[in-house]
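Researcher: We plan to redesign the surface later, but first we want a full-length starting point. Tokens attached.
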């Protein structure tokens, strides 16, 4: 069913970090922690063993706006987020000459690293991450372009290792007569 799939694209709503749902036992569960659990189960599923993973961190606009009111540490997975922020901080849309990253950018980076470390600890794979604002089609197109590039890099890597093999191989069958 998934034989032709090359990249698993996993979409995360960044703004879920302070949102909750009630599970089947009646308990309140953080939506980001639920997403983390789902990611863990997909990442370790044998079906996706040979595939690359691209995480789309979506709803960045809501995320930035929410961070003004609710700290990222509200989600226990991110309770180690203690950014050093300049008093002259910019927001991500600012075109000022101040290049200090905004709280939103630092928080995005923190979440991205959490997912990267998680995948690496579970599968030893490198995780690709892209920032998306679902309401801005350009950012969605860029992420899909990134997914196509990942596939291309994979093909190039495969071709390179195959050509390296035939170059160094001592197997007589790999030489032309
Ligand atoms: N502000 C903002 N809204 C978005 C973005 N991406 C999707 N949405 C909107 O979010 C709403 C919910 O969409 P989804 O997240 O796909 O649906 P869902 O998972 O069932 O919704 P929730 O669980 O409530 O988040 C829709 O109205 C979308 O248009 C985004 O990047 N920014």
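Model: Full-length starting sequence:
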């Amino acid at each position: 069913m998934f034989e032709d799939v090359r990249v698993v694209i996993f979409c995360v709503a960044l703004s879920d970090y302070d949102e909750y749902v009630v599970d089947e036992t009646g308990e309140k569960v953080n939506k980001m922690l639920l997403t983390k659990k789902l990611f863990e189960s997909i990442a370790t599923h044998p079906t996706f063993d040979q595939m690359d993973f691209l995480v789309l961190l979506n709803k960045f606009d809501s995320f930035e706006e929410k961070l003004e009111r609710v700290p990222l540490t509200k989600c226990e997975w991110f309770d180690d987020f203690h950014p050093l922020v300049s008093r002259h901080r910019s927001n991500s849309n600012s075109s000022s000459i101040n290049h200090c990253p905004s709280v939103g950018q630092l928080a995005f980076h923190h979440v991205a690293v959490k997912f990267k470390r998680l995948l690496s600890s579970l599968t030893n794979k490198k995780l690709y991450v892209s920032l998306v604002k679902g309401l801005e089609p350009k950012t969605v197109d860029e992420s899909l372009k990134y997914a196509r590039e990942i596939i291309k890099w994979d093909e190039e890597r495969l071709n390179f290792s195959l050509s390296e093999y035939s170059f160094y191989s001592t197997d007589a069958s790999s030489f032309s007569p």
